[in-house]
Structure formats: C-alpha cells, structure tokens
C-alpha cells in the first residue's frame, strides 16, 4: 500500500488522488469547504501540547475529509457522515468536544492541509504506511482491509488474486490512484495495460459491459457495489502481496506530529470502543463487518 500507490482509504502516495464515488453529496462540499477552511490555532509544542484543551474550550474539532463514500463524505441532505466522521463524533464527545466540523478537500491535500493547520484531524479512513508516517502521526487503525475482485457471474476465468490475473492474461481494471495498481504491477501485470477508471461504480460497469474481465478494489467497496448487479459478483477477499509478503491494510486518523497528547487520548477511547464491540456498531451501517475489525497498530503499519 512497490511504492508509489496506496488507497482509502488508501493511496500510498500522499499527493495522489483518492478513491472517488459517483454517489450524491459531492456538490455540497464546496459550500461547506468555504466555511471550514479558516485556520485552526497554531501547532502545539513538541511534547504533545494543549490542543485537546483548546478544542474542549472551543467545543468543536475540524475534520479533514475527502468526500469519499463510505469513509467520509457529505450526504444528500448536506450532513457530514461516513465511518470516520461518525467514529470521530463519538470519540471527541467522550473527550469533551461536542461538535465536529467538516473541512472538505482533495485526498492528496489532506496531509498538507493538516500540517498547515487548516483542520485538526484527518478523518478520511486513510491507510497507514511508512511514507505517511514520516509526515504525520496516526491513531491505531479502526479497520483493516483486504482486496477483492469484481468479475462476471460465475467468475469464468477463475480469478482469485493478482497472480491469476497475470497468468490468465485477464483484462484488468482498477480505480484512479488505487493501491491495486501497485499490487497488480508487483504481481507482474504491465502497468500500461491496466484500464484506469474513476471508481468502483465505473469498474462494475466495465465488467458488466465486457470491456474488462476484472476490476480490483477493497473488499468493502466491491462487496457493496455488486449487491444490485445481475451480471457481476465479487470474489472472496484476499491479501495482496507487497514486497513478497501477504499484506493487510489498516485505516486510521492522522494528527500533526506535535499532537501526541491528542492522538494518545483518542487512542484510549478508540480501544475502549473496540473492547466493548461498539466500534463495529458504529461502522456497520457503512458496510463494515467483523472481518474488517482489527488489532493492528499504527506502529506495525509504520514499519516498527
């Protein structure tokens, strides 16, 4: 999550575009973005600072989101939702901060926007990887994610992983900036032969129309998008091979490197939600299942 690309939640390269959805809500981003882009207070000191105290006093925390379903987006009614914002609402309420305010931006602008203090926290289901860990600090992941394929009904080519795609010379597609590009290339697929489409909806359409044999995405997004399809199905989730080893991605909240105090307080509440089972209850409406719950740590995903 071979380096430059990683996804949702989720791209390897912080400057790359995010996964996109064609569903409603994008139009509302502009208006909310204009209201939410004022600067937050200056960064805290190196020992963790007092940002949490200032957020409590203000009664609001600004969340950087990327308008990506189901991770963090504005719904048809103009309301902030998604797995990360809904989880943030619960945790920050427990930390004494009553309100969350969305600051919509491009996925590639989330880390620069965080570090330039346009918002307090990245709440976009961002994958944790070593490249990003050099720029921000992460909470422990609130979910883990495997890959899966969209294929035609019956999976006529028997495609189960990226090696199958290469060996059977399947016509392969994935989304703009998706980690799956790098995973396919690592398996031996020629990058110039990959059909790049905007998102999983376009990927499903390409499979149904017979333009490609397979579309690769996260297990969650592929599972959700094929539910109403009469022509396509989703394969069993699997671990892509990264640097020769099976790999599991994990999504988390990102904080400025100086905000260790806020990150640590957030982690305490996150782990309480994991232990009680409430985390799954919060994430379940967005398609997450027990299979996406995880004990992975940010330290592990940062490379030690």
TrEMBL record:
GO MF entry, a single one: ectoine binding
NCBIfam families linked: ectoine_ehuB
Species for this entry: Streptomyces calvus
Protein name (Swiss-Prot/TrEMBL): Ectoine/hydroxyectoine ABC transporter substrate-binding protein EhuB
Entry superkingdom: Bacteria
Boundaries of every Solute-binding protein family 3/N-terminal domain copy: 60-290
CDD domains: PBP2_Ehub_like
Keywords associated with the record: Signal
Upper taxonomic lineage: Bacteria, Bacillati, Actinomycetota, Actinomycetes, Kitasatosporales
InterPro entries listed in its UniProt record: Ectoine_EhuB, Solute-binding_3/MltF_N, TAT_signal
Entry keyword annotation includes Transmembrane helix: no
GO annotation terms (biological process): ectoine transmembrane transport
């Amino acid at each position: 999550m071979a380096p430059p690309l990683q996804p949702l939640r989720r791209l390897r390269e912080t400057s790359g575009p995010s996964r996109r959805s064609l569903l409603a809500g994008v139009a509302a981003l502009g208006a909310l973005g204009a209201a939410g882009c004022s600067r937050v207070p200056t960064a805290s000191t190196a020992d963790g600072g007092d940002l949490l105290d200032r957020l409590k006093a203000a009664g609001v925390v600004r969340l950087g989101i990327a308008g990506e379903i189901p991770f963090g987006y504005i719904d048809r009614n103009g309301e902030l939702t998604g797995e990360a914002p809904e989880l943030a609402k619960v945790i920050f309420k427990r930390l004494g901060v009553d309100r969350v305010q969305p600051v919509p931006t491009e996925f590639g602008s989330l880390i620069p926007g965080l570090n330039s203090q346009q918002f307090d926290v990245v709440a976009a289901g961002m994958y944790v990887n070593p490249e990003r860990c050099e720029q921000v600090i992460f909470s422990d992941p609130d979910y883990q994610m495997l890959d899966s394929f969209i294929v035609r009904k019956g999976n006529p080519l028997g495609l189960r992983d990226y090696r199958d795609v290469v060996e059977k010379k399947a016509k392969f597609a994935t989304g703009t900036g998706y980690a799956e590009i790098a995973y396919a290339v690592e398996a031996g697929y020629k990058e110039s032969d990959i059909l790049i489409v905007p998102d999983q909806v376009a990927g499903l359409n390409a499979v149904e129309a017979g333009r490609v044999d397979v579309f690769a995405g996260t297990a969650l997004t592929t599972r959700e998008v094929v539910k109403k399809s009469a022509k396509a199905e989703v394969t069993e989730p699997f671990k892509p091979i990264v640097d020769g080893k099976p790999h599991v991605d994990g999504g988390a909240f990102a904080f400025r490197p100086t905000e260790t105090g806020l990150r640590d307080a957030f982690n305490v509440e996150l782990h309480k939600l994991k232990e009680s089972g409430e985390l799954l209850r919060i994430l379940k409406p967005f398609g997450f299942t027990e299979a996406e719950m995880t004990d992975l740590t940010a330290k592990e995903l940062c490379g030690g």
